[in-house]
Specification:
Blueprint (H helix, E strand, L loop, with lengths): L4 E8 L7 E10 L2 E9 L9 H7 L3 H4 L5 H13 L3 E4 L2 H14 L8 E4 H8 L8 H7 L9 H17 L1
Parallel strand pairs: 1-4, 4-5
Antiparallel strand pairs: 1-2, 2-3
Helix pairs in contact: 5-7
GO molecular function: 3'-5' exonuclease activity; nucleic acid binding
Organism: Coprobacter fastidiosus NSB1 = JCM 33896
Pfam families: RNase_T (PF00929)
Length: 166
């Protein structure tokens, strides 16, 4: 079981993976949640698709004065050096957002392996009707405010811990 990881979740402003507009992080050390952190991000490119806003409720006026991804990363990059893995529910999406944002900001980074709680849940809980974050969270009675980046990251962290016990 991986005991030291960062659970991550992004919300995006539009179809571009580099358009992160919100990020939630939950740090787990020795199997315990030790820190939670979230921020709004001024997305690049700076435009919002109506369908994105309908999903997460973040609008251009909420992120107009938010830090850029480059500014955000300069505050948190050292956290990733200390962890064994990055955990996300549907990790291919969140990791592609992270990589696209790093590339857009021209930041080289060595990230740890990623673990997808969606895939892990499919393997360990095949009897569930689906393996969406809200479904698996409900199964484990994990509170969730879906499409809030911090809430989604917190749920992914708790899912990782619970799924590791199975």
């Amino acid at each position: 079981m991986i005991n030291n990881f960062i659970a991550i979740d992004f919300e995006t402003a539009n179809k571009y993976r580099s358009s992160a507009c919100s990020m939630g992080l939950v740090i787990v050390n020795n199997g315990l949640i030790t820190r939670e952190w979230e921020t709004l991000i001024k997305p690049q490119p700076f435009f919002f698709s109506h369908w994105s806003t309908a999903i997460h409720g973040i609008t251009p006026d909420k992120v107009m004065d938010a830090p850029t991804f480059e500014e955000v990363w300069s505050r948190i990059d050292s956290w990733f050096v200390k962890c064994d893995a990055i955990v996300a529910h549907n990790a291919p999406f969140d990791m592609s957002v992270l990589h696209a944002c790093l590339e857009k900001a021209q930041i080289a980074s060595h990230l740890p392996e990623s673990i997808c709680t969606y895939r892990l849940a499919r393997k360990k809980l095949p009897f569930l009707r689906n393996h969406k974050l809200n479904t698996v969270s409900e199964y484990f009675q994990i509170p969730l405010n879906h499409h809030d980046a911090l809430s989604d990251a917190r749920a992914a962290a708790k899912l990782m811990l619970r799924l590791s016990e199975i």
